[in-house]
Write a sequence for this structure.
């Protein structure tokens, strides 16, 4: 099987976790404190993965300058795009309660939430493709970490969409579309960057890491802290340790 196709399938696999989370969040009643705890765990997983896998890989490939410029740049681009989408009604797209506006309350919120959810998923997917540029083998640590974090993302956001009166078609249409686009983004992450210089690949990996960290602080961690603040830190640490163990076992 061509490596570019493998990259796409790995991205699709990681993105499919959004659908699993969405099904749990939409069709079952999960207490909001439990959702918040799962969000905290997913945040810890991603923080660990981007620190010990993504940023380390960026530093080893391109040195500190490439990693630093990419990291700050990714956070800046994500934050700007997220701020613009928040003005259109996507601010609370990861929230599981009644914070998300309905279509009747804000006619532009449906599209904004869809675009915002896509914005959250693309950097993670590109990372999977980039991880295959050396030797054609995927970083299983990255795939597992992204898969584990996507479940609470889909769960919390879909619960919030249900509270806002979104239809089943809308909710699962979004997550199915994002899962497919995740596969495409991973494929492109490999295919487009396979001929680039090492420094460019390093900066791109760091850019994705910066965007992921900004996404965590802006969208996932607030949900985790609001309802599970007494235990959010502990659960985040457990998630961090789980991904840290994966990194060491994978190495």
């Amino acid at each position: 099987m061509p490596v570019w196709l493998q990259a796409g399938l790995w991205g699709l696999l990681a993105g499919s976790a959004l659908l699993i989370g969405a099904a749990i969040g939409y069709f079952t009643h999960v207490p909001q404190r439990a959702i918040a705890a799962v969000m905290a765990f997913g945040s810890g997983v991603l923080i660990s993965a981007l620190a010990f896998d993504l940023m380390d890989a960026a530093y080893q490939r391109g040195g500190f300058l490439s990693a630093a410029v990419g990291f700050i740049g990714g956070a800046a681009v994500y934050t700007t795009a997220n701020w613009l989408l928040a003005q259109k009604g996507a601010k609370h797209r990861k929230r599981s309660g009644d914070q998300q506006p309905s279509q009747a309350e804000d006619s532009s919120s449906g599209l904004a939430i869809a675009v915002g959810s896509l914005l959250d998923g693309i950097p993670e997917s590109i990372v999977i493709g980039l991880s295959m540029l050396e030797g054609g083998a995927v970083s299983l640590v990255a795939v597992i970490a992204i898969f584990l974090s996507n479940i609470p993302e889909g769960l919390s956001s879909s619960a919030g969409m249900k509270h806002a009166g979104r239809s089943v078609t809308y909710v699962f249409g979004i997550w199915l579309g994002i899962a497919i686009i995740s596969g495409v983004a991973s494929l492109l992450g490999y295919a487009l960057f396979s001929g680039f210089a090492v420094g460019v690949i390093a900066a791109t990996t760091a850019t994705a890491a910066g965007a992921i960290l900004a996404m965590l602080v802006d969208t996932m961690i607030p949900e985790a802290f609001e309802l599970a603040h007494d235990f959010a830190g502990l659960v985040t640490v457990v998630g961090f340790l789980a991904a840290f163990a994966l990194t060491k076992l994978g190495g």
Summary: The mean pLDDT is 84. The first helix runs from residue 3 to 27. Residues 103 and 110 are 6 Å apart (CA to CA). DSSP finds seven helices and no strands in the chain.
